[in-house]
Amino acid sequence: MAHEHFDIAKKQADLTAMMDRVLVNNRLGHAYIFEGMVGSGQEDMALYLAAYLNCLNPADKGIPCGTCNHCRRILSADYPDVFHIQPDGNTIKIDQTRDLKERLSMSSLEGDNQIFIIHEAEKMTVNAANSLLKFIEEPHENVFIFLLTNNRDAILSTIVSRCQMIHFPQLNRVDLQSLFEEAGIKPSMATTLTALTNDVGEATVLAENEDFQQRLNWSLQWVDLIVKKDPRGLTMVASDWMKGPKGRTDMIQALNLVAFHFHDLLYLLLHVDQGQDNQAQLVFPNDFGKYQGMVNKITVAEATKSLHLVGQAQRMIQSNVSVQSAMEYMVLAYWKK
Question: What is the 8-class DSSP label of residue 56?
Fold first, then answer.
């Protein structure tokens, strides 16, 4: 099968082979969530499938050629039947999903299929998500929708339950770390950034951002206080988080860091017998020593609950609830018996 014109085959060979089997057997669903770290290939996969659905000169078993007029224009985001929906500022608003519905009432302009690609789908407001839900529940023939996200927990649960979920594994962390270090990022920071992005450019920007480094430090301090049910976990929201940069995008990113710490704690709880061998499997292996003071203060159920609450707080922020209220709610809900 010819894949040389599509980046997804280089980034996620196994996933590409899996989707090829789906396509060959005519089993492609109408709505998918592609979830994984930024740069892991979610958009590449959406474009690959869009090319498959509209290719003028498919290769063996229908695999898109990548060179015909339709394929080239799809890959360059210049094809009228492939619609890209991007956040308007910090959110995807209801007007944008209404526009999607209007487009659904129109016939395809060039091909037989219409494809809607929603970037950063976790940024949909609740109203926008509910509007989209009606389409997902009542699919149109020859219409496909791909939601791209790095945080599935921040997407409305009713949408998640009605889409097919495909997780995009992180690209090889060892290779990524080498790339980041070659770009001039210090090894300790490079290790952390491999958990956040697969993109060298984004990693370089974050490594040089003092506000990001402050959020990184605060995230571990905050998780420690929350886990130990220390009242300072609540007051820290106003005393620290609200005094630093508190744009909604920044705070959603900060909560991603918080989620990664809880993820590490959950992993350690589930693999307690492996001891220090766990360190290499953590999102933040450099924090292994600090985690040791927390694991006796948290249960598997609490760690699981915390991940849900982080996603809920992010959805609140996206829906224009004040950042402080969302973060305080998360703390109090975690402490509630």
Answer: S
Hey, what are 47's tokens? 């474009």
The answer to pTM > 0.70 is no
Q: Partners of 280 in the beta sheet?
A: none
Report the sign of the C-alpha dihedral through residues 249, 251, 254, 256, in that order: negative
Sort strands 82-85 and 31-36 into parallel, antiparallel or unpaired: unpaired
Secondary structure class of 236 (helix, strand, coil): helix
Beta-carbon contacts of residue 114 (< 8 Å; ≥ 6 apart): 81, 82, 83, 103, 104, 108, 142, 143, 144
**Beta carbons within 10 angstroms of residue 269's beta carbon:** 18
Which residues, in sequence order, are CB contacts of 266 under 8 Å at separation 6+?
300, 303, 304, 307
CA–CA distance, 174 with 282 (Å, rounded to integer): 13
Give per-residue pLDDT as tens, 229-259.
Answer: 999 999 999 999 998 666 888 898 899 999 9
Strand, helix or coil for residue 30: coil
Q: How far apart are CA 312 and CA 35, in angstroms?
A: 17
β-sheet with 114-118: strand ranges across: 82-85, 114-118, 143-149, 31-36, 164-168
182-222 pLDDT tens trace:
999 998 888 888 888 888 888 999 999 998 999 999 999 99
Alpha helices (H) along the chain = 8-11, 13-24, 42-54, 69-75, 94-104, 126-137, 157-160, 173-182, 187-193, 200-207, 210-227, 232-239, 248-270, 288-291, 300-318, 323-335
Of the candidates 171, 87, 97, 73, the residue with the CA atom closest to the CA atom of residue 121: 87
Token look-up 């894949």 returns 3
- What is the per-residue burial (b if ≥16 Cβ within 10 Å, else e) of 106-142? eeeeebebbbbbbbbbbbbbeebbebbbebbeeeeee
